[in-house]
Amino acid sequence: MKEQAKQNVIIKEALHKDTLNKLQEAKQLLQQQEEIAKKQAAEKKRAERKQREKNKSFEELLNENVLDWRDFK
After folding, report:
1. CA-CA distances (angstroms) from residue 25 to 28, 55, 64, 67?
2. Where in the chain are the domains?
């Protein structure tokens, strides 16, 4: 554990501040891109689900219905 902490300090000290800043900016950019990709994937799923619901046949809708005619006799 102590060795790892020493290595982190050494690496941090060895890198110039410019390089460290560039790496941190790249990390933030990648995180933002991942977040955008997740949002797009969720929106795509939502659109596909809506399209599937829209294209259901009458039989599928009837089978999904939980109401039974015998309950209303």
Report:
1. 5, 45, 50, 57
2. 2-72
Give the angle 6-12-17 at the CA atoms, nearest 5°.
165
| Residue 49 in tokens | 């689900």
Distance CA 23, CA 11 (A): 13
Q: Is the pTM of this model over 0.85?
A: no
Q: Is the alpha carbon torsion for 37, 43, 39, 41 positive or negative?
A: negative
Tell me, rounded to whole angstroms, the distance of Cα 26 from its chain centroid: 19
Higher pLDDT, 50 or 3: 50
| Eight-state DSSP code of residue 70 | G
State mean pLDDT over 29-50.
Answer: 96
